[in-house]
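The protein record filed here.
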Amino acid sequence: MKLVVVAAGLSVPSSTRLLADRLAEATRTSLGDAEVRVIEVRELATAIANHLVTGFPGPALADAIDAVTEADGLIAVTPVFSASYSGLFKSFFDLIDNTALAGKPVLIAATGGTARHSLALEHAMRPLFAYLRALVVPTAVYAASEDWGAEGTARTDDLPRRIERAGAELADLMESRARTRRPADEAVVPFAQQLAALRTG
């Protein structure tokens, strides 16, 4: 199973990357085993800008896009600015073909300085991936500054429990999708090829 994590944090160290790593670990734990690759969008910023104006991706950007489109599951994490995802995050996904994520399990998450930005997951990120026809897990994870180390309330889980639940949901969707794929030995044989085999037999 290939799990790709897209982290759009702008600083080093980054709370966005920290959340991305914890979500990846929770998903891998639920899967039992998975190949995990993290794409730091910040490192591709110049290549993304060049691609947007020239239409040609550099090798590193092309490799990142291929990794996202070939993944069995995707974790997408962005910082929130002005109640929406970052421009860099959006620019990266603008370069993904709008059919490449169809049916792909995706876990969305975000970080921000205040809990007031948490609805960005529902009014910005979820519609973006719905447009791309991805299969977004029910639990979206938002981490405000005060969530790190907090115990939560009676109405909301604490951050570790939300991370664990979201990771388990993504793992379930990845495994379910893998089970429904047609095995290679059951591939559909074109009708003309079947007729040719009958004639030679």
User: Anything to note?
Assistant: The radius of gyration is 19 Å.
